[in-house]
Amino acid sequence: MLMGTVALAGCGSGSGGSGEKKSGRLKLGFIYATTTQNPFQEMAYGAKAAAAADGNVTLNASAPTGVNGPVQVQLFRSAIRSSPDGIALQSLAPDLFVRPLNQGADNDIPTVAVDAAAPPGTKTKLFVGNSNTEVGRALGEEFIKNVPAGTKGEVVIGNDIPGLHLLEQRIEGLIAVIKKERPTLTIKGPFDAKSEPTDNFNAWNAIVRNHPKAIAFLGVGAQDGVSLPLIKKQTGRKFLAGSCDLDPAALKAVKDGSLFALSSPEHWLKGYIAIQMLIQSKRDGKKLPEGWWNPGTLVVNGGNVEEVMKRQANEQSRNAYFKALADKQLDDPDKYLKPLDQAN
């Protein structure tokens, strides 16, 4: 299994750390799930931007080329050796990381969980991630704007990674809105929609074929917003489609009306904030705070899609848009940091 690795040298107690100030070069790691999907690429962009903004950080950003938990564990263990000043972890299989995270803590390496909370039994007590219930509710609220009250029919829901808690939270939020606001609709699923691009397209193709009268197909992962518009185009079927995340193809589908909306967890912010908090803890000689940092949710629809596409054009445009927003959040931690047990 090949790995994608970026080594970036910037220009110019619960989570570990000795509490000593460090003004020289920092060696940090960002270990994420895969290089092949947009959400994880976005988080890596944010992580790299934080390292570059400091100006004296070497960031080892590594991921498998395709979701592979055991390979990611190997990358994390390698980062324990190469990134002694702190590691941020984003994983789709967090339960595999109990021992690796504790190994990092035993080596006095600060760790931050990104996107998915650290599993029970670890000493990683800082989590930078969304309210995924809110992400799902936001998609549901956009959906009902397109469905008149009293409408009957099937609404089919897909889940890219069954068993992954954060996607299940999105589904819970989505279904809650639909059941409350459009009780005459019949919800089917969630069905396994797979996460890798080809698998996702094939899975959705089968799901759409098996539900010929459905009025809507809704996904909660990134690839759903790519696959569903392609299926609409290829089959000529007319149905509502919506999803989460900001894959470039999905943004184009919102612009042309193939998707009614995307609910964005604003992944860039998570990568930036996690790495910046590691940097700041080392520069200030303070341990990482404990708790859940929620950077927020953005709904992308026909009204703002062109603006979002401009900011997503490249890494420079992302940096120009997000950095001030991230720094504003970091300047007001009490507003964004809540107890870990409130994460939803």
From TrEMBL:
InterPro entries, per database record: Bact_Solute-Bind_Prot2, Peripla_BP_I, SBP_2_dom
Gene3D superfamilies on file: 3.40.50.2300
GO annotations of cellular component type: outer membrane-bounded periplasmic space
Periplasmic binding protein domain segment(s): 31-281
GO molecular function: carbohydrate binding
Localization in the cell: Cell envelope
Family as reported in the entry's similarity comment: Belongs to the bacterial solute-binding protein 2 family.
Protein name (Swiss-Prot/TrEMBL): Sugar ABC transporter substrate-binding protein
Species of provenance: Actinomadura spongiicola
Lineage, uppermost ranks: Bacteria, Bacillati, Actinomycetota, Actinomycetes, Streptosporangiales
